[in-house]
Amino acid sequence: MSATKSTIRSAPEKVVRNSLAALLGRHVLTHRLTPPPSSNLHELGLALIGMALVLIPGCTPPPNPTAQVSTPPSEQPVLRISVLPTQNKAEQEQMIAPLDAHLEKVLGQRVEFLIAASYKDNVDMLVDGRANAAYTGAVSYFEALERGAKVEPLAAPIDQFTNRPWYRACIIVAASSPIQTLADLRGKRVAFVSPSSTSGYLMPLAALKQLGIDPDRDFAAVIFGGTHAQTEALLEDGKVDAIATNIPSYNKRQSLGQLTPGNSRVLWESAPVPHSPFLVASNLPPALIEKLKEAFLTVPPGLQDIVGTQAQGYTLVEASDYEPIQQLRIQLRLTADTSK
Length: 340
Prior knowledge:
Elements: H1 13-17, H2 19-22, E1 26-27, E2 79-83, H3 89-107, E3 111-115, H4 119-128, E4 133-135, H5 138-146, E5 151-159, E6 166-167, E7 169-174, E8 189-192, H6 198-210, H7 215-218, E9 221-224, H8 228-236, E10 242-246, H9 247-255, E11 264-269, E12 273-274, E13 278-281, H10 286-297, E14 311-316, H11 323-331
Parallel strand pairs: 2-3, 2-4, 8-9, 8-10
Antiparallel strand pairs: 1-11, 4-13, 5-13, 5-14, 6-12, 7-10, 7-11
Helix pairs in contact: 3-10, 4-5
């Protein structure tokens, strides 16, 4: 895959300030698959006109090979990558293998992947130094910063279905459920993924709060599934009335037969959300960071993102691309402490 350079402006201040209202999203009475991918990768840099919230990661130019200073492999720090647990360990290990091989080939050094036991463990590894890079979520990125980790976002996957570095959070109910609106969730059993999940908690919580719905007060039960796969299984098994997840994960589970097609439907979906960032420790050698950029911009076709997204490549991102997520956390009074 060839590197594609485009310029994407960060969300304007007015949009950021009004982000809570904009994240209400919309009800979906019948399941609508995300639009098929565009064949033009250069469209990645275009603004998403008409979207309620502009949450689009920007891109930076690919590294200039002539400007890099090579460091002997023996002097390079081992790249230890903490991985957010989004499905079962065996699935993630299988998805990691080809990316591991690609990174080691481009970087010319050993790479170690560490699948976290939980969202919190994913952040813990960055904070205590067990990992110096991470596949994580946008919320977890800010939790890591709040807990003292010196990290910065480097890359994010390009969604195979939208051909953009974003996705949508959603709330799913059984196909036969009488629930037709978010207001109908009052008195029901609802499962979220984790307090540290962007699509599995933050985004749906924003929509619920906008309607004056407090999950702790208004739901019959609030359950945290731990991963998207486990949360989706709770609905499939009839243990809850609704779940919070995201469209890519929901589509993938159905395509794999892990969710029975026709048994569930999308009740609500959010405005676009920037895809989960790949983080690097700020103290990694600049040459290594540049090689990582090269590695992500040249991933082989068909190599999936290892946290479950059906991706068709990566784009480079910056801290400012995720600022709307942080502003939303502030408005909802969410911090690393409240996520414990």
